[in-house]
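Anyone up for a design puzzle?
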Protein backbone atom coordinates (compact mmCIF):
# COMPACT_ATOMS: atom_id res chain seq x y z
CA UNK A 1 0.00 0.00 0.00
CA UNK A 2 1.41 3.40 -0.97
CA UNK A 3 2.35 5.81 1.81
CA UNK A 4 -0.45 8.19 0.88
CA UNK A 5 -3.05 5.40 0.81
CA UNK A 6 -1.80 4.12 4.17
CA UNK A 7 -2.06 7.60 5.67
CA UNK A 8 -5.62 7.99 4.37
CA UNK A 9 -6.53 4.53 5.69
CA UNK A 10 -5.19 5.41 9.14
CA UNK A 11 -7.18 8.64 9.24
CA UNK A 12 -10.32 6.79 8.14
CA UNK A 13 -9.87 4.17 10.88
CA UNK A 14 -9.35 6.90 13.46
CA UNK A 15 -12.51 8.75 12.40
CA UNK A 16 -14.47 5.51 12.77
CA UNK A 17 -12.94 4.56 16.12
CA UNK A 18 -12.50 8.03 17.65
CA UNK A 19 -15.74 8.30 19.62
CA UNK A 20 -15.55 4.79 21.06
CA UNK A 21 -11.87 5.29 21.86
CA UNK A 22 -12.57 8.50 23.77
CA UNK A 23 -15.54 6.88 25.54
CA UNK A 24 -13.38 4.01 26.76
CA UNK A 25 -10.60 6.35 27.84
CA UNK A 26 -12.95 8.63 29.78
CA UNK A 27 -14.07 5.58 31.75
CA UNK A 28 -10.41 4.88 32.50
CA UNK A 29 -8.98 8.34 33.25
CA UNK A 30 -12.13 10.20 34.39
CA UNK A 31 -11.15 13.30 32.41
CA UNK A 32 -12.57 14.23 28.98
CA UNK A 33 -9.71 16.52 27.97
CA UNK A 34 -7.11 13.94 28.95
CA UNK A 35 -9.01 11.24 27.07
CA UNK A 36 -8.94 13.37 23.91
CA UNK A 37 -5.20 13.93 24.33
CA UNK A 38 -4.57 10.22 24.75
CA UNK A 39 -6.65 9.41 21.67
CA UNK A 40 -4.57 11.88 19.69
CA UNK A 41 -1.38 10.27 21.04
CA UNK A 42 -2.62 6.91 19.79
CA UNK A 43 -3.27 8.39 16.35
CA UNK A 44 0.26 9.79 16.19
CA UNK A 45 1.63 6.38 17.17
CA UNK A 46 -0.41 4.73 14.40
CA UNK A 47 0.84 7.25 11.85
CA UNK A 48 4.39 6.41 12.93
CA UNK A 49 4.13 2.60 13.10
CA UNK A 50 1.45 1.38 10.67
CA UNK A 51 3.13 2.55 7.44
CA UNK A 52 5.95 0.10 8.28
CA UNK A 53 3.98 -2.75 9.85
CA UNK A 54 0.69 -2.46 7.97
CA UNK A 55 -2.76 -2.00 9.51
CA UNK A 56 -3.39 -4.42 12.40
CA UNK A 57 -6.24 -6.91 12.22
CA UNK A 58 -8.10 -5.04 14.97
CA UNK A 59 -7.10 -1.38 14.58
CA UNK A 60 -9.56 -0.16 17.19
CA UNK A 61 -8.13 -2.51 19.81
CA UNK A 62 -4.59 -1.45 18.84
CA UNK A 63 -5.46 2.22 19.30
CA UNK A 64 -7.12 1.54 22.67
CA UNK A 65 -4.18 -0.51 23.96
CA UNK A 66 -1.73 2.16 22.84
CA UNK A 67 -3.76 4.93 24.45
CA UNK A 68 -3.97 2.94 27.71
CA UNK A 69 -0.20 2.53 27.76
CA UNK A 70 0.15 6.27 27.21
CA UNK A 71 -2.25 6.82 30.13
CA UNK A 72 -0.17 4.62 32.42
CA UNK A 73 3.03 6.39 31.34
CA UNK A 74 1.42 9.76 32.01
CA UNK A 75 0.18 8.72 35.44
CA UNK A 76 3.64 7.55 36.40
CA UNK A 77 5.26 10.67 35.03
CA UNK A 78 2.92 12.82 37.08
CA UNK A 79 3.84 10.95 40.29
CA UNK A 80 0.33 9.59 40.70
CA UNK A 81 1.29 5.89 40.68
CA UNK A 82 -0.42 4.90 43.90
CA UNK A 83 -3.72 6.68 43.25
CA UNK A 84 -4.09 5.88 39.59
CA UNK A 85 -2.81 2.33 39.78
CA UNK A 86 -5.57 1.66 42.30
CA UNK A 87 -7.96 2.39 39.38
CA UNK A 88 -6.16 0.59 36.59
CA UNK A 89 -4.39 -2.13 38.58
CA UNK A 90 -1.08 -2.65 40.35
CA UNK A 91 0.29 -5.47 38.26
CA UNK A 92 2.00 -5.39 34.89
CA UNK A 93 0.32 -3.46 32.09
CA UNK A 94 -0.44 -6.56 30.04
CA UNK A 95 -2.20 -8.17 33.01
CA UNK A 96 -4.24 -5.10 33.89
CA UNK A 97 -5.78 -4.36 30.52
CA UNK A 98 -8.53 -7.04 30.70
CA UNK A 99 -9.55 -5.78 34.16
CA UNK A 100 -9.71 -2.22 32.88
CA UNK A 101 -11.88 -3.28 29.96
CA UNK A 102 -14.20 -5.18 32.29
CA UNK A 103 -14.52 -2.09 34.48
CA UNK A 104 -15.64 -0.12 31.44
CA UNK A 105 -18.86 -2.10 31.05
CA UNK A 106 -21.94 -0.15 32.17
CA UNK A 107 -25.48 -1.28 32.84
CA UNK A 108 -26.37 -1.48 29.14
CA UNK A 109 -22.95 -2.33 27.81
CA UNK A 110 -22.53 0.77 25.66
CA UNK A 111 -19.68 3.18 26.36
CA UNK A 112 -20.84 5.76 23.84
CA UNK A 113 -24.22 6.12 25.51
CA UNK A 114 -22.50 6.47 28.88
CA UNK A 115 -20.38 9.25 27.42
CA UNK A 116 -23.49 11.04 26.13
CA UNK A 117 -25.15 10.91 29.57
CA UNK A 118 -21.92 12.21 31.10
CA UNK A 119 -21.70 15.08 28.63
CA UNK A 120 -25.37 15.84 29.34
CA UNK A 121 -24.83 16.25 33.08
CA UNK A 122 -27.02 18.93 34.77
CA UNK A 123 -23.92 20.88 35.86
CA UNK A 124 -23.71 22.04 32.22
CA UNK A 125 -26.14 24.28 30.39
CA UNK A 126 -28.34 22.63 27.75
CA UNK A 127 -26.41 24.24 24.89
CA UNK A 128 -23.11 23.19 26.47
CA UNK A 129 -24.29 19.59 26.84
CA UNK A 130 -25.30 19.35 23.21
CA UNK A 131 -22.17 21.05 21.90
CA UNK A 132 -19.84 18.86 23.95
CA UNK A 133 -21.55 15.64 22.92
CA UNK A 134 -21.55 16.60 19.25
CA UNK A 135 -17.82 17.19 19.54
CA UNK A 136 -17.05 13.98 21.45
CA UNK A 137 -19.50 11.56 19.84
CA UNK A 138 -20.08 13.00 16.41
CA UNK A 139 -16.53 14.24 15.94
CA UNK A 140 -17.92 17.48 14.49
CA UNK A 141 -15.75 20.57 14.26
CA UNK A 142 -16.64 23.67 16.23
CA UNK A 143 -17.67 25.30 12.93
CA UNK A 144 -20.12 22.49 12.15
CA UNK A 145 -21.55 22.59 15.66
CA UNK A 146 -21.92 26.35 15.39
CA UNK A 147 -24.05 25.94 12.30
CA UNK A 148 -26.14 23.24 13.95
CA UNK A 149 -26.84 25.71 16.79
CA UNK A 150 -26.91 28.84 14.57
CA UNK A 151 -24.15 30.12 16.89
CA UNK A 152 -20.67 31.56 16.25
CA UNK A 153 -17.71 29.18 16.10
CA UNK A 154 -15.76 31.07 18.81
CA UNK A 155 -18.73 30.80 21.18
CA UNK A 156 -18.97 27.06 20.58
CA UNK A 157 -15.22 26.56 21.17
CA UNK A 158 -15.41 28.43 24.49
CA UNK A 159 -18.51 26.48 25.47
CA UNK A 160 -16.79 23.13 24.87
CA UNK A 161 -13.63 24.13 26.70
CA UNK A 162 -15.59 25.35 29.73
CA UNK A 163 -17.74 22.21 29.69
CA UNK A 164 -14.78 19.84 29.87
CA UNK A 165 -13.24 21.91 32.64
CA UNK A 166 -16.49 21.88 34.61
CA UNK A 167 -16.87 18.10 34.31
CA UNK A 168 -13.30 17.61 35.54
CA UNK A 169 -13.65 20.03 38.45
CA UNK A 170 -16.95 18.49 39.59
CA UNK A 171 -15.62 14.94 39.34
CA UNK A 172 -18.62 13.86 37.28
CA UNK A 173 -19.00 10.07 37.24
CA UNK A 174 -18.86 8.34 33.88
CA UNK A 175 -22.07 6.31 33.85
CA UNK A 176 -25.63 6.03 32.63
CA UNK A 177 -27.62 7.47 35.57
CA UNK A 178 -30.64 5.79 37.09
CA UNK A 179 -34.05 6.82 38.36
CA UNK A 180 -34.93 10.51 38.62
CA UNK A 181 -31.48 11.64 37.48
CA UNK A 182 -31.85 9.64 34.27
CA UNK A 183 -35.20 11.34 33.59
CA UNK A 184 -33.67 14.74 34.25
CA UNK A 185 -31.03 14.27 31.58
CA UNK A 186 -33.12 12.40 29.02
CA UNK A 187 -34.49 15.41 27.10
CA UNK A 188 -30.99 16.75 26.59
CA UNK A 189 -29.74 13.34 25.48
CA UNK A 190 -32.55 13.11 22.91
CA UNK A 191 -31.73 16.59 21.66
CA UNK A 192 -28.08 15.69 21.20
CA UNK A 193 -28.82 12.44 19.38
CA UNK A 194 -31.14 14.27 16.99
CA UNK A 195 -28.59 17.01 16.36
CA UNK A 196 -26.05 14.32 15.45
CA UNK A 197 -28.60 12.76 13.10
CA UNK A 198 -29.40 16.11 11.50
CA UNK A 199 -25.75 16.86 10.79
CA UNK A 200 -25.56 13.55 8.95
CA UNK A 201 -28.90 14.02 7.19
CA UNK A 202 -28.08 17.47 5.81
CA UNK A 203 -24.38 18.27 6.25
CA UNK A 204 -23.86 21.93 7.10
CA UNK A 205 -20.51 22.15 5.33
CA UNK A 206 -18.17 20.34 2.99
CA UNK A 207 -18.56 18.58 -0.34
CA UNK A 208 -21.11 15.95 0.72
CA UNK A 209 -24.83 16.47 1.15
CA UNK A 210 -25.20 13.47 3.47
CA UNK A 211 -22.89 11.99 6.14
CA UNK A 212 -24.46 8.54 6.61
CA UNK A 213 -22.07 7.46 9.39
CA UNK A 214 -23.47 10.14 11.71
CA UNK A 215 -27.04 9.13 10.96
CA UNK A 216 -26.20 5.47 11.51
CA UNK A 217 -24.62 6.28 14.88
CA UNK A 218 -27.60 8.40 15.95
CA UNK A 219 -30.00 5.62 14.95
CA UNK A 220 -27.93 3.06 16.85
CA UNK A 221 -28.02 5.19 19.98
CA UNK A 222 -31.74 5.80 19.54
CA UNK A 223 -32.41 2.07 19.33
CA UNK A 224 -30.30 1.45 22.44
CA UNK A 225 -32.31 4.08 24.31
CA UNK A 226 -35.57 2.49 23.15
CA UNK A 227 -34.46 -0.87 24.52
CA UNK A 228 -33.33 0.73 27.77
CA UNK A 229 -36.42 2.89 28.27
CA UNK A 230 -39.36 0.96 26.73
CA UNK A 231 -42.00 3.16 28.40
CA UNK A 232 -40.63 6.57 27.36
CA UNK A 233 -42.85 7.99 24.62
CA UNK A 234 -40.41 10.60 23.35
CA UNK A 235 -37.62 8.05 22.98
CA UNK A 236 -39.86 6.24 20.51
CA UNK A 237 -40.93 9.55 18.98
CA UNK A 238 -37.31 10.41 18.23
CA UNK A 239 -36.55 6.91 16.96
CA UNK A 240 -39.60 7.07 14.67
CA UNK A 241 -38.51 10.43 13.30
CA UNK A 242 -34.98 9.24 12.54
CA UNK A 243 -36.14 5.98 10.95
CA UNK A 244 -38.61 7.80 8.70
CA UNK A 245 -36.12 10.49 7.70
CA UNK A 246 -33.38 7.93 7.00
CA UNK A 247 -35.71 5.98 4.71
CA UNK A 248 -35.22 8.67 2.05
CA UNK A 249 -31.41 8.55 1.91
CA UNK A 250 -31.11 6.74 -1.43
CA UNK A 251 -33.49 9.16 -3.15
CA UNK A 252 -32.23 12.46 -1.69
CA UNK A 253 -29.47 13.07 -4.23
CA UNK A 254 -28.83 12.27 -7.87
CA UNK A 255 -25.89 10.51 -9.46
CA UNK A 256 -24.09 13.86 -9.57
CA UNK A 257 -24.55 14.33 -5.82
CA UNK A 258 -27.05 17.16 -6.29
CA UNK A 259 -29.96 17.30 -3.81
CA UNK A 260 -33.36 16.18 -5.08
CA UNK A 261 -36.31 18.02 -3.46
CA UNK A 262 -38.80 15.79 -1.67
CA UNK A 263 -41.63 16.21 -4.24
CA UNK A 264 -39.27 15.12 -7.05
CA UNK A 265 -37.77 12.07 -5.35
CA UNK A 266 -38.22 8.57 -6.75
CA UNK A 267 -40.30 7.01 -3.99
CA UNK A 268 -39.47 3.56 -5.28
CA UNK A 269 -35.98 4.11 -3.89
CA UNK A 270 -37.23 4.85 -0.38
CA UNK A 271 -36.37 2.21 2.23
CA UNK A 272 -39.76 0.72 3.06
CA UNK A 273 -38.36 -1.41 5.88
CA UNK A 274 -37.14 1.77 7.58
CA UNK A 275 -40.57 3.32 6.99
CA UNK A 276 -42.23 0.34 8.67
CA UNK A 277 -39.84 0.57 11.62
CA UNK A 278 -40.57 4.29 11.87
CA UNK A 279 -44.35 3.84 11.76
CA UNK A 280 -44.14 1.11 14.40
CA UNK A 281 -42.06 3.35 16.68
CA UNK A 282 -44.52 6.22 16.13
CA UNK A 283 -47.43 3.96 17.05
CA UNK A 284 -45.57 2.98 20.22
CA UNK A 285 -45.01 6.65 21.12
CA UNK A 286 -48.69 7.42 20.57
CA UNK A 287 -49.79 4.39 22.60
CA UNK A 288 -47.63 5.66 25.47
CA UNK A 289 -49.51 8.99 25.39
CA UNK A 290 -46.87 11.03 23.59
CA UNK A 291 -48.72 11.93 20.39
CA UNK A 292 -48.36 15.68 20.95
CA UNK A 293 -44.78 15.64 22.21
CA UNK A 294 -42.20 17.38 19.96
CA UNK A 295 -40.43 14.37 18.42
CA UNK A 296 -43.62 12.39 17.96
CA UNK A 297 -45.21 15.37 16.19
CA UNK A 298 -42.22 15.66 13.86
CA UNK A 299 -42.40 11.92 13.23
CA UNK A 300 -46.09 12.29 12.39
CA UNK A 301 -45.09 14.93 9.83
CA UNK A 302 -42.54 12.57 8.29
CA UNK A 303 -45.14 9.80 8.28
CA UNK A 304 -47.45 11.94 6.12
CA UNK A 305 -44.76 11.96 3.44
CA UNK A 306 -43.90 8.29 3.93
CA UNK A 307 -47.51 7.19 3.44
CA UNK A 308 -48.03 9.17 0.22
CA UNK A 309 -47.44 6.93 -2.79
CA UNK A 310 -46.83 9.96 -5.00
CA UNK A 311 -45.97 13.59 -4.29
CA UNK A 312 -49.43 14.67 -5.49
CA UNK A 313 -51.05 12.47 -2.83
CA UNK A 314 -49.22 14.25 0.02
CA UNK A 315 -51.72 15.53 2.60
CA UNK A 316 -50.31 19.04 2.92
CA UNK A 317 -53.31 20.33 4.85
CA UNK A 318 -52.70 17.74 7.59
CA UNK A 319 -49.00 18.64 7.53
CA UNK A 320 -49.84 22.34 7.90
CA UNK A 321 -52.16 21.54 10.83
CA UNK A 322 -49.46 19.43 12.52
CA UNK A 323 -47.00 22.29 12.18
CA UNK A 324 -49.56 24.52 13.88
CA UNK A 325 -49.56 22.18 16.88
CA UNK A 326 -45.77 21.85 16.81
CA UNK A 327 -45.33 25.63 16.78
CA UNK A 328 -47.28 25.78 20.03
CA UNK A 329 -45.50 22.85 21.67
CA UNK A 330 -42.02 23.78 20.46
CA UNK A 331 -41.99 27.38 19.19
CA UNK A 332 -38.84 28.28 17.25
CA UNK A 333 -37.88 30.20 14.09
CA UNK A 334 -37.04 26.92 12.32
CA UNK A 335 -40.46 25.44 13.10
CA UNK A 336 -41.97 28.71 11.88
CA UNK A 337 -40.04 28.43 8.63
CA UNK A 338 -41.19 24.86 8.04
CA UNK A 339 -44.74 25.84 8.90
CA UNK A 340 -44.59 28.52 6.21
CA UNK A 341 -43.35 25.94 3.68
CA UNK A 342 -46.21 23.58 4.57
CA UNK A 343 -48.79 26.34 4.24
CA UNK A 344 -47.34 27.37 0.88
CA UNK A 345 -47.88 23.83 -0.38
CA UNK A 346 -51.35 23.49 1.15
CA UNK A 347 -52.77 26.94 0.44
CA UNK A 348 -50.51 28.55 -2.15
CA UNK A 349 -47.19 30.44 -2.26
CA UNK A 350 -48.67 33.79 -1.22
CA UNK A 351 -49.78 32.24 2.08
CA UNK A 352 -46.24 30.98 2.59
CA UNK A 353 -44.83 34.46 1.94
CA UNK A 354 -47.24 35.95 4.47
CA UNK A 355 -46.06 33.56 7.18
CA UNK A 356 -42.40 34.16 6.29
CA UNK A 357 -42.94 37.89 6.79
CA UNK A 358 -43.86 37.15 10.41
CA UNK A 359 -40.53 35.45 11.21
CA UNK A 360 -37.97 36.81 8.72
CA UNK A 361 -36.53 39.30 11.22
CA UNK A 362 -35.67 36.60 13.79
CA UNK A 363 -31.94 36.91 14.61
CA UNK A 364 -31.44 33.15 14.32
CA UNK A 365 -32.57 33.24 10.68
CA UNK A 366 -30.45 36.21 9.61
CA UNK A 367 -27.67 34.09 8.06
CA UNK A 368 -29.71 30.90 7.59
CA UNK A 369 -29.68 29.77 3.95
CA UNK A 370 -32.99 27.85 4.04
CA UNK A 371 -34.89 31.12 4.69
CA UNK A 372 -34.05 32.84 1.36
CA UNK A 373 -34.25 29.42 -0.33
CA UNK A 374 -37.84 28.99 0.87
CA UNK A 375 -38.75 32.57 -0.07
CA UNK A 376 -37.19 32.03 -3.49
CA UNK A 377 -39.27 28.89 -4.02
CA UNK A 378 -42.49 30.68 -3.03
CA UNK A 379 -41.72 33.59 -5.37
CA UNK A 380 -40.82 31.20 -8.19
CA UNK A 381 -44.11 29.35 -7.85
CA UNK A 382 -45.92 32.70 -7.74
CA UNK A 383 -44.31 33.69 -11.06
CA UNK A 384 -42.21 36.48 -9.52
CA UNK A 385 -39.02 35.28 -11.18
CA UNK A 386 -36.73 38.29 -10.75
CA UNK A 387 -37.43 38.40 -7.02
CA UNK A 388 -36.97 34.64 -6.77
CA UNK A 389 -33.58 34.87 -8.48
CA UNK A 390 -32.33 37.35 -5.88
CA UNK A 391 -33.39 35.04 -3.07
CA UNK A 392 -31.63 32.01 -4.58
CA UNK A 393 -28.50 34.13 -4.99
CA UNK A 394 -28.72 35.01 -1.30
CA UNK A 395 -29.15 31.33 -0.34
CA UNK A 396 -26.16 30.31 -2.48
CA UNK A 397 -24.01 32.95 -0.78
CA UNK A 398 -25.01 31.78 2.70
CA UNK A 399 -24.69 28.01 2.41
CA UNK A 400 -21.43 26.28 3.27
CA UNK A 401 -22.35 23.00 1.58
CA UNK A 402 -21.05 22.73 -1.97
CA UNK A 403 -23.83 20.44 -3.23
CA UNK A 404 -26.46 22.72 -1.76
CA UNK A 405 -24.81 25.74 -3.37
CA UNK A 406 -24.85 23.99 -6.74
CA UNK A 407 -28.56 23.29 -6.25
CA UNK A 408 -29.29 26.98 -5.62
CA UNK A 409 -27.29 27.94 -8.71
CA UNK A 410 -29.48 25.52 -10.67
CA UNK A 411 -32.57 27.28 -9.33
CA UNK A 412 -31.09 30.61 -10.46
CA UNK A 413 -30.62 29.17 -13.95
CA UNK A 414 -34.25 28.00 -13.92
CA UNK A 415 -35.38 31.54 -13.10
CA UNK A 416 -33.35 32.89 -16.01
CA UNK A 417 -34.73 30.25 -18.35
CA UNK A 418 -38.33 30.95 -17.35
CA UNK A 419 -37.79 34.69 -17.65
CA UNK A 420 -36.34 34.20 -21.12
CA UNK A 421 -39.29 32.11 -22.20
CA UNK A 422 -41.72 34.69 -20.82
CA UNK A 423 -39.94 37.49 -22.67
CA UNK A 424 -39.87 35.48 -25.90
CA UNK A 425 -43.59 34.83 -25.72
CA UNK A 426 -44.46 38.55 -25.48
CA UNK A 427 -45.44 40.17 -28.80
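Challenge accepted. My sequence:
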Amino acid sequence: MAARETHEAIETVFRIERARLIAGLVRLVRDVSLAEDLAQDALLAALSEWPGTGLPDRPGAWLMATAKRRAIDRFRRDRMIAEKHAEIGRDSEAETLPDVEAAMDDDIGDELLSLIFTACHPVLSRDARAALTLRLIGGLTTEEIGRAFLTGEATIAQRITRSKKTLAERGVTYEVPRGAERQERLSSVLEVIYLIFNEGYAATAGDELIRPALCTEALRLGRILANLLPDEAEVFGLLALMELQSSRFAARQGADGMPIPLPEQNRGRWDHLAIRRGLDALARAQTLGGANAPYALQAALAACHAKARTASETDWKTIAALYGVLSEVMPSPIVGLNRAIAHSMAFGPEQGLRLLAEIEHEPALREYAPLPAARGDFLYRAGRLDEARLQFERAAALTHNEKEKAFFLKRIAACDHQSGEASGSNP
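A detail worth pointing out: The beta strands are 205-206, 400-401.
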